[in-house]
Amino acid sequence: MTTKSEHLWLNLGCSDDYREGYVNVDLPEYDLGDTWVWDDDSVDYILARDIIEHLPDKIHTMNEAWRVMKHGAVMTIEVPTTDGPGAFQDPTHVSYWNRNSFKYFEHGNIYRDRFAKDYGIVAAFKIRNDITEQSQDGPRLTIILEAVK
Predict the structure, then answer these.
(1) CA 4 from centre of chain
(2) Spatial contact of 106 and 126, defined as CB atoms under 8 Å apart
(3) For position 29, what pLDDT does the model report?
(4) pLDDT of residue 3
(5) Per-residue pLDDT for the chain (149 aa), expressed as one digit of tens each?
(6) SS3 of residue 104 by DSSP
(7) Could you give the domains of the chain?
(8) Which pLDDT belongs to residue 27?
(9) 107 near 148, Cβ under 8 Å?
């Protein structure tokens, strides 16, 4: 539980990357494939490094992140892209992402405007920044999203 003066920061899929000041989230304590345990509009920041590709339902993942985030809250996602082998080589990856995947969740984007209702997308984000860098496993995308409510 947090007070108004405290910030709620989530470190999703932390594994052994525990961060001070964050709620460090990993299995088996948390199931991110189900409804997330945090209240609506309660989260100030989400760090999602090497986790969303392990979650089976892209729309559920993005909708839940948006639901728990406050208006203007920020989420940093780091994910291997489908532009290289990193997205496919890990046998535990079950969803595949690239920069264009986020168009469906971008407030004001024609893809979101056209398909959100039929796809069940309620999440709406402003893309603050994105960068793709090379790694030993190929391209990795870091994208910074701001919740629009």
Answers:
(1) 24
(2) yes
(3) 87
(4) 43
(5) 444 458 999 999 999 999 999 999 998 889 999 999 999 999 999 999 999 999 999 999 999 999 999 999 999 999 999 999 999 999 999 999 999 999 999 999 999 999 999 999 999 999 999 999 999 999 999 999 999 99
(6) helix
(7) 9-147 (3.40.50.150)
(8) 81
(9) yes
3 state DSSP class of 8: coil
Geometric angle at alpha carbon 81, from 25 and 100, rounded to 5°: 100
Picking from 14, 105, 116, the residue whose alpha carbon sits closest to that of residue 61 is: 105
* Rounded Cα distance, 12 and 114, in Å: 30
Instruction: Output the six-digit token pair for 9.
Output: 């920061």
- Give yes or no for a contact between 133 and 96, defined as CB atoms under 8 angstroms apart: no
Q: Please enumerate in sequence order all residues whose Cβ is within 8 A of that of 29, keeping only pairs 6 or more positions apart, or say none.
A: none
Tell me the H-state helices in 6-121: 58-68, 86-89, 110-119
Closest CA to 75 of 3, 6, 8: 8
Write out the two tokens for 97.
Answer: 């992402």
What does residue 38 show for φ and ψ, rounded to 5 degrees?
Answer: -85, 150
Q: What is the DSSP letter of 101?
A: G
Q: Which residues contact 18 (CB under 8 A, 6 or more apart)?
A: 11, 24
What's the pLDDT at 5? 53
